[in-house]
Amino acid sequence: MGLSLGFHIIFAIVGMVMPVLMALAHYRWLKTHDEDYLNLTRWWMKGLGIFFATGAVSGTALSFELGLLWPGFMVHAGPIFGMPFSWEGTAFFLEAIFLGLYLYGFNRLKPWTHWWTGVGVGICGMMSGIFVVAANAWMNSPSGFEWKDGQAFNIDPVAAMFNDAWFSQAQHTVITATLAVSCAVLGIHCALLLYRRQKVLNMKAIKVVLPLFLLSAILTPISGDISAKDVAKRQPLKLAAMEAHFETEKGAGLWLGGIPDEEARKVKFGIQIPYLLSLLATNNPMSEIKGLNDFPEDEWPPLLPVHLAFQVMVGIGTLLFLLALFILWRLWKKKDIFENRMILKIFALATPLGVIAIEAGWIVTEVGRQPWIIYGILKTRDSVSPMPGLEYILFFFAGLYLMLSVTVSWLMYRQFQLFMKKDNHV
Length: 426
Fold this sequence. Notes:
The protein is mostly helical. Helix content is 70%, strand content 7%.
């Protein structure tokens, strides 16, 4: 399931954000009648179509896995959090309909009607992602039912959907997905500029993407702070695992880097900033933060992957935030940013960073909840299928995702080749 989610989330965030960029480029074409914006819209549209089709396959595989791998979970959870999944399915099908209208609507629909179908793709893509996150948030903050003798009673699907964690997870997902995709698209067009391909078109692409990158990069630390405070309140054990914080103390420090040593109950090779963890978690530098030692050891999540993934996520978010501040400073100085080859190289190298941060954040969210599949209610080991031969299912899905990865890479390579053949040094 971890392999499947890690693969699918890339296609999910592209489906959420790429339609927004496509609609922005299309809007500029409608307002200016500049053919470059039309070509850019068509190029992004084809890339979105490839990712959407592949994401549909991997998403369908995930729905099968819920039944195959987690019968114990679905028996209890299905009636409670089925609502966000049903709404997600609705949003996905509407997205597919709008995308079909958009792909085949050029020269068939009125220009502004056609543009609104593209906007519909973006809205439905965002809503689809938010509904899935609402379901996942319920697993981190179960609500909308009473649990007695291993059974759920008095089920309220609306309360389950709008649980205490849904807002913090949804806003963080939307903002970081926007950052990841805009960073990747920006990096690709900067790399093409380095190769001196389609200079005018790539500069216009950067003008479309850059505001979205800057806005999401600036908002990401704020969004992360909201999420961290929510985790500190609802899941103090997860917070302790994220920071490899062993001893309960007031004025807890924040670790930069480091390797948690579970036997010695300490962090090796890290740098600790005094009072910062208490400040970030509660806005009070002297507040008490519970340590791992206050919780039963059999309920600890795997510390090493959770701590390292948290460090990677925060590190990349901070790096992109600083890069955004640097670009804003350069813009304030009215300097030609993307005439500077060093800046182009920085953005080209940063292309995968947002996606890596998304993957790291997903590890923190999912692995950090272990050993619970429904936090505090149902453990993962009590939910997994007892069916023998599950390793063969793993091999099957790993092979499926490998095949999809190769297919997408080949199709996108063809798109780049077609794009670069239209050479333009102007």
